[in-house]
Amino acid sequence: MFPKCNLAVTGWVWRSMRKLFLLLSLLLSHAAHVEGKKDNQFIWKPGPWGRCTGNCGPGGSQSRALWCFHSEGWTSHLSNCDEHNRPPKERSCFRVCDWHRDLFQWEVSDWHHCVLAPPDLGPATPRAAACVTAQHGLQHRTVHCVQKLNRTMVVNEICEHFAPQPPTEQACLIPCPRDCVVSEFSPWSTCSNGCGKQLQHRTRSAIALPLYGGSQCPNLTESRACDAPISCPLGAEEYTFSLKVGPWSKCRLPHLKELNLSGRTVLDFSSESKELVPFRHHSYKAHHHSKSWDIEIGFQTRQVWCTRSDGRNAVLRYSWKTSEWKECQVSLLLEQQYLHWHETGPICGGGIQTREVYCAQSTPASTAQRAKEVSRPVAKTLCLGPAPSASQLCSTPCSTDCIMSSWSAWGLCVHENCRDPQGRKGFRMRQRHVLMESTGPAGRCPHLVESVPCEDPVCYQWLVSEGICIPDHGKCGPGHRILKAVCQNEQGEDVSGSLCPSSPPPEQMACEIPCRMDCVVSEWTEWSSCSQSCSNKNSDGKQTRSRTILALAGEGGKPCPPSQALQEYRSCNDHSCMQLYWETSPWGPCSEDTLVTALNATIGWNGEATCGVGIQTRRVFCVKSHVGQVMTKRCPESTRPETVRACLLPCKKDCLVTAFSEWTPCPRLCQPGNATIKQSRYRIIIQEAANGGQECPDTLFEERECEDVSLCSTYRWRPQKWSPCVLVPESVRQGVMGTSETCGKGVQTRAVSCISDNNQSAEMTECLKQINGMPPLMQECVVPCRDDCTFTAWSKFTPCSTNCETTRSRRRQLTGKSRKKEKCHDADLYPLVETEPCPCDVFTSHPYGNWSDCILPESRKEPHRGLRLQGDTRECGEGLRFRAVACSDKNGRPVDPVHCNSSGYIQEECVIPCPFDCKLSDWSSWGSCSSSCGIGVRIRSRWLKEKPYNGGRPCPKLDLKNQVHEAVPCYTECNQYSWVVEHWSPCKIHNELRSLRCGGGTQSRKIRCMNAADGEGGAADKSLCNQDEIPPETQSCSLLCPNECVMSEWGPWSKCPQSCDPHTMQRRTRHLLRPSLSSRTCAEDSQVRPCLLNENCFQFQYNLTEWSTCQLSENATCGQGIRTRLLSCVRSDGKPVAMDECEQRNLEKPQRMNLHCLVECVVNCQLSGWTAWTECSQTCGLRGQRSRTRFILMPTQGEGRPCPTELTQHKTCPMIPCYSWVLSNWSACKLEGGDCGEGVQTRSLSCVVHNGSISPWTVRVDDALCREMPFQDSILKQPCSVPCPGDCHLTEWSEWSTCELTCIDGRSFETLGRQSRSRTFIIQSFENQDSCPQQVLETRPCTGGKCYHYTWKASLWNNNERTVWCQRSDGINVTGGCSLQARPAAIRQCNPACRKPFSYCTQGGVCGCEKGYTEIMRSNGLLDYCMKVPGSEDKKADVKNLAGKNRPVNSKIHDIFKGWSLQPLDPDGRVKIWVYGVSGGGFLIMIFLVFTSYLVCKKPKPHQSTPPQQKPLTLAYDGDLDM
């Protein structure tokens, strides 16, 4: 224990230490904080941006969170991070709204090829077991959000606001993996005799390369060490050494005559760690720039080193580009359809537009987007593949005016502005509406409102309705009617009565009910329609109404009024026929306005400035009909059309041109004469300037003269005089026995120089270029001896005649003393005349090859406006066809055909039949409109007159009557012609008694057909009005007698519901006008009936017709048109009614009544002109052909004349003799002293003539006929190599494997198959195997492949082993191709293993016993133990011998005794019956002999049968092979 004082001291010390520790920790944390800020250990980390909020468009905003993180990952206060590096927390954004849906859309590409899906991360499954016929793959595609207007990409979040993003990948199936298939190994190479480690190898080749994710090819080479029974003594290993040489370098001048830029000589050898010996090889290098014919000697080098047998020591791409399409030209199409067409007015419809097509260097897409400059055009031959089309069909929109409805009735006289009525003048108005909108840029719609001035306008008026007459006293006599007044505005809507200007009408008005004997008169009819729409000087408009006498007055009653009192008249439409209306000018161009500058400054979603919003203006002026423009204040201001409207400013388009092409090359060779050679360059307009953009440059083509063009000089050889004849030198001649006279044969030389046409000295090479060969520099000569005959030089040969059998001769004469020598006159020894047959220029010609196509003469007409139409060139008529000629001399050798025929052809006339087009009649006149009210159809037709033939323009689709029809919409005003009726005449009584003036009779009226458009109400022909709705002119009537009861006319039936429910009743009423004198009751005053469909109740619906044919403008023959359909209102009983019936019931009205359509233009096939004839496909021989082609500029459209099938014409070339260099076979590889390594192979050349046929008959000729001899080293010399012992080298290519297809279940998966071949390496030394090259595999497509399948094959079992291999269906043993999971077992083993003494595994796969032992089996059929067979001791040695091995000896003795040995078991494994008998008998005998006494005293025990599970002891070997 410690003392207490010590404890107190300890506590104080602990408290002090704790405070000190706390202080130190604070200091350390502060220091760490300061150090952390100093070392930038705190960093800003922003969160993701939130959703864009705010107003639609660019005024939105986004925000995100910010954190301050330490570098170790924990967060800290924001003040610890540097404020200068603080990321922004908010930013502006573009907020997507619903109305943006029409501006953006998803754009998806086509699905890419199916690729193998990546493996799952789960537990691996055997690939072959999972794949049966195909395996899962993935297809991908690209998805972008684009702006509809210009197809530019924007962020995907904009489109995701409207529709989810389409999937970018989908599952697909590809065939199962196909592993690499290789052939069997070749036999092992032989091992050489001797000691030391040696290698032998064997190789195999690839038959099929892996596909669809199959296993890669294994090694194609196997190497192993040879069995070396004799090891080499230390230091006495047997190696072979070889001198390895490298390839020769280029010929170089020695030492300082040729230095490179770095100052090092060309002879530079990099030796690494090897000791390399540079070998020099002499080569000759001619310098043609020196005046003299000198040759400098250069050197070639190669590397040489010694190797031991163990291996130690040792494109720009080009593509087609196009400009933008030019303006659509309708005239081009009309000119090619109608040869004599000329422009007479505005045209529209289908046309042709063109563009420039040029070849330029391809640029990556990323580079092309950044760089706005356009690639310069290059030669079109650099672009591969077909060029894009330079022309296409287009359409110029046609302009059609609006189709208008008829005018409505004139309205009341109202103030111009009822909210602020001023003055006593107003307007009466009528309206019409647009039935079909205008189309095209020049389509116009006329005015929709007309007005006429009027006085005393009212905006509100009282509408009064009268009730029935109520008598004041009793049942008849004076009475009153109750009036109901409603204030209405000009639209017929009920408003407050305070708005009507006058006081309301009285609530009652006087009336009278006839008494029993009074005359009864009907109510007034409605006012008739006005007889005129306006008033003129001659007549005014009138309206009438009438009433009829229903019953006559009796005695003392009130009499009937006179006939004049039965009708009333009033004036109507008393305004002038001069209407006023607003007329407008066309809208002006869209221009920028300062008020919308802020809108134009917005930034589009693709990051580029938008074109902005502008304004359009137009002039508005007031027009008076039949007069013209008047002051604007005369037209109502309320109907004034707008003069300003917003528009989209068209984007400025700058002119885009390509860069200038390269200058056309100036000729490198000299040019004859003083001709001026020019070079040119051009550029192409890609985009024309528009809407105020930068204009195109004026210069598109530039030309300049070539500089430094040398003029060709003519060079010739100028030989000098021959030198004196030089004999054998004196020193040599002195050693020869004989005469010492200086005479005999010698040599003389001369100098040859090259001079130009102005006798100036020139390079020797100039003459060699122009002249084939060089004059001889040396010739033999003779110095005559003293006794020799001397002669003059031979004269020239005499000329030959044309006869081939003539001869020619030349002469010489004796000179000097030879004239006197007798021997010189011997003509046999010294002839003075020489004769030889003349050269025979007899040549034989014979035609060969086929006749060419019929070729028409060329047309000289130039193409029109850059396009060649088919009519510009002759397509039929008389022409010529050609056949080539082969020419040979009298010896049968081919010669130039010029010797036989100047052109090399024979020709004959031919005819190409002309095509005849389909001929139709002219169009018939238009039929009448199918509808007398509204929009209908008019039809016209034409019929076939002549069918086409010889490829003429085909006929359009005809009906069964060989006619073609055309239908166009038509419109008829529904109320243009209507029936107008007058009032009924008084009822005329049929009673013959004149005293009676009452009873039944008839009354009549006048009807007429009136044209509503005729303002004066003139009558029209009755046939123009609808005959089905003609009103009756007569009707029956009755005039009641004084004593009869008089009822009023029936009122209207009450309305039925729209459902036409038959349980709902319809009612009408009438009232009593005068009671009868008798007590007889009057007729009923009300009637009811059920609402029955199609009887008294009807339903209505809109009826749509089919779409009409495509309607074109009058100025168009094809192109954009309009298809319309008709809308009408139909009653449920099928009767058409006015459209008001459907409109009043607010039925759903179809929206689209017309849509755009396209009438296919009749375009004849447009062809280019024939190209120039190509050069002969063969420079010589019989197979040469020339051809020319033309191209389809625009294919046939519609019923145009089809394209001809002949687009290429061929012509056989005349047979020109072929002079060819023939190469000999390559020599063996020459190493020039080396044993192995790099060497040279050579071959020789010889010149032959032949006709170029498949089996050429060649004759060797002079080498000069083969022109320039190809002395290139690559032709006459090539490098070769001989592998050194110990080198690891590649073998030669294996043969191509058979063509194999990819198949599923025996059916081909593709059209092209594959072939494979391979090169493997040979290892000659294990120490050198690291430097071995990689094995090389090649595959190529092939046709005619087959489907192969692969199966496992196995040999018979031999000692529980067998060989298993894979075999292709054609019998070739391969490695790979078979499923590893289905591979059969190659080793058979017993399960469980045979571990019992004297047991072994049999061929049947079960355990058996060795010879001399028998099996004792368990109940489950397995071996329990082996029991020795009694009597086999004498074969102990054999048993031991057998026991020493694991399997029985398969000897001939065993086979002999196998057939008769005792077998205790049946083939099915059961114990035979005789075994039981023998065992039982032996057992009974033994018991009887040993236990006889016991058996007498005791009863024998019952016999127990042997359990069926155990086998009894056997005494014989069954001879089973499995034992």
Produce a short descriptive summary.
The protein is built from 14 helices and 93 strands. It is mainly beta and 1523 residues long.
Account of the protein in words:
The protein has 1523 residues and is mostly beta strands. The protein is built from 14 helices and 93 strands. The strands form 37 sheets. Strands 14-12-89-88-87 form a 5-stranded antiparallel β-sheet, with no helix packed on it. Strand 17 and strand 18 form a beta hairpin. The chain is extended, with a radius of gyration of 60 Å.
State the main characteristics.
mainly beta; five-stranded antiparallel β-sheet; disordered N terminus; 1523 residues; 93 strands; disordered C terminus; 14 helices; five-stranded mixed β-sheet
Topology:
Layout: H1 4-38, E1 42-46, E2 57-63, E3 66-70, E4 75-76, E5 90-95, E6 104-108, E7 115-116, H2 127-130, E8 134-140, E9 143-147, E10 153-154, H3 156-160, E11 169-175, E12 181-183, E13 199-203, E14 206-208, E15 221-225, E16 241-245, E17 277-286, E18 295-308, E19 318-322, H4 330-337, E20 349-354, E21 357-361, H5 365-370, E22 377-378, E23 391-396, E24 403-404, E25 425-431, E26 434-436, E27 449-455, E28 461-471, E29 477-488, E30 508-513, E31 520-521, E32 541-546, E33 549-551, E34 567-572, E35 580-584, H6 597-600, E36 613-617, E37 620-624, E38 628-630, E39 644-648, E40 656-657, E41 678-682, E42 685-687, E43 701-705, E44 716-719, H7 730-734, E45 744-749, E46 752-755, H8 764-770, E47 778-783, E48 807-811, E49 833-837, E50 844-847, E51 877-888, E52 894-895, E53 905-912, E54 919-920, E55 934-946, E56 963-972, E57 977-981, E58 988-989, E59 999-1004, E60 1007-1011, E61 1019-1020, E62 1034-1039, E63 1046-1047, E64 1065-1069, E65 1072-1074, E66 1086-1090, E67 1100-1104, E68 1119-1124, E69 1127-1131, E70 1136-1137, H9 1139-1144, E71 1154-1159, ...
Parallel strand pairs: 16-77
Antiparallel strand pairs: 1-3, 2-5, 3-4, 6-9, 7-8, 8-11, 9-10, 12-14, 12-89, 13-15, 16-18, 17-18, 19-21, 20-23, 21-22, 24-26, 25-27, 28-29, 29-30, 31-33, 32-34, 35-37, 36-39, 37-38, 40-42, 41-43, 44-46, 45-47, 48-49, 50-51, 51-52, 51-53, 54-55, 55-56, 57-60, 58-59, 59-62, 60-61, 63-65, 64-66, ...
